Amino acid sequence: MLFFVPGDAFGWLLPAGSLGAAATLLIIMLAAGRGGFSPHRMLLAGMALSTAFTMLLMMLQASGDPRMAQILTWISGSTYSATPERVVRSGAVMLALLALAPLCRRWLTILPLGGEAARAVGMALTSSRIVLLLLAACLTAAATLTIGPLSFVGLMAPHIARMMGFRRTLPHMVISGLTGGLLLVFADWCGRMMMFPYQIPAGLLSTFIGAPYFIYLLRKQSR
């Protein structure tokens, strides 16, 4: 919609983004369904889709269309277009979806133990994974429509919350959300101050910080 609708296309972003997210999720489910939606098959399906979308973006960039500047700004994870109206809309959707998260507490507690442990306690493995995948996809879409992809913030925050000692499901979810919000605010502030009057998108800065952090985590786990 940013590419095809002139002017402020935010009114089209929610329905179009929802359809796009649903189509992407359907492809992942079709690709990973035979393996019982195991994390490894879903990861491979996600990597394949990411490669395909990257190729599409490169084709659009090669076209030389001036509208690509707006798309590149959104992809960078910037807060420039996060107006109060957009934040209220996205926040309302996210609060409604977050209200469903406590209902999934049992699944979120047992699934990290592995598929065999989940089956041993009588959990319907495939259906629980589908429901959690749908909930996570909807929450991610609601946030991404406003700011853009901020994958490293979403990856760092749960690890930091666990390192702080919050390991039970609900406290871990709450602290992860608060930590992610603080990381985004900090990255946005640094991006506005480091090269003032120029600005660095928060998504780029969080990626710059997050990459060394994950290298540190990998080295720590290998010891």
TrEMBL record:
For this protein, the record's InterPro entries field holds: ABC_BtuC-like, ABC_transptr_permease_BtuC
Q: How does it sit in the membrane?
A: Multi-pass membrane protein
Q: What is this protein called?
A: Ferric hydroxamate ABC transporter
The main location class comes to membrane
Pfam families hit by this protein: FecCD (PF01032)
User: What are the subcellular locations of this protein?
Assistant: Cell membrane
Q: Which CDD domains match?
A: TM_ABC_iron-siderophores_like (cd06550)
PANTHER family named among the record's database cross-references: FE(3+) DICITRATE TRANSPORT SYSTEM PERMEASE PROTEIN FECD-RELATED, FERRIC ENTEROBACTIN TRANSPORT SYSTEM PERMEASE PROTEIN
